[in-house]
Amino acid sequence: MKLGIQSYSLRKLTYENALKVMSELGISYVEAFPRHLPPSSNSVKDIINLHRENGVKVIAHGVNHLKSDEKELRSIFDFANKVEIEVITADPDEDSLNLISDLVKEYDIKVAIHNHGPTHRWGSYKKIYEFTKNLDRRVGMCLDLAHLFRYGENPIEAVNTLRDRIHDIHVKDVNNKGEDVIVGSGILDVKGVIGKVKELNLDIPLMIEYEPEPEKPVPGIVKSLEYVKKLL
């Protein structure tokens, strides 16, 4: 499995400096936060070179709001294609899904719907499954462990239900108040989730997203990485 980091974890840094930190930590994969790497960026060659210089491959990008507008959608897919992004993490409007399903076939790029908390329109993995089960299999879910816990659903059940429709996992942990903490120090069954992924032989990027301590996130990121590496 590909282990990387959601660059939102380093949101107080410029993207260039965030990539340098990842390189120093031995991180090989990144999911780029749109404010770090706007999909409207024109200098594709410079973006690719920046990642190569740091030895970090951008394999996912998001979270992107996707509307039912073919021109706008194509601009995001064109960007992902040029930068060699494999997964667009998304918050799509419901009426955009059929068009998205057509575009994932055309571009061979996955779209992963992110469950962004208990009040979010895509908070439930069950809703995501119902809305995607009849679409192309490249349309699926980005499973955020902390947000799904706050919603009250079981992430292991989500993996078992969506299986190869889960295209990205935001690896997080929470305490008994539902607050984000270092992965491995909280109450989430991260080991069970990764065990289920391995049991089902799924090829899902694992992206650590460490949201606490935005001014000094590196120690927490390091401890989270160490824990997940042990599980792998």
UniProtKB/TrEMBL annotation:
Pfam families referenced in this protein's UniProt entry, alphabetically: AP_endonuc_2
InterPro entries (alphabetical): IolE/XylAMocC-like (IPR050312), Xyl_isomerase-like_TIM-brl (IPR013022)
Source superkingdom: Archaea
Domain (Xylose isomerase-like TIM barrel): residue spans on this chain: 21-230
Name of protein: Xylose isomerase-like TIM barrel domain-containing protein
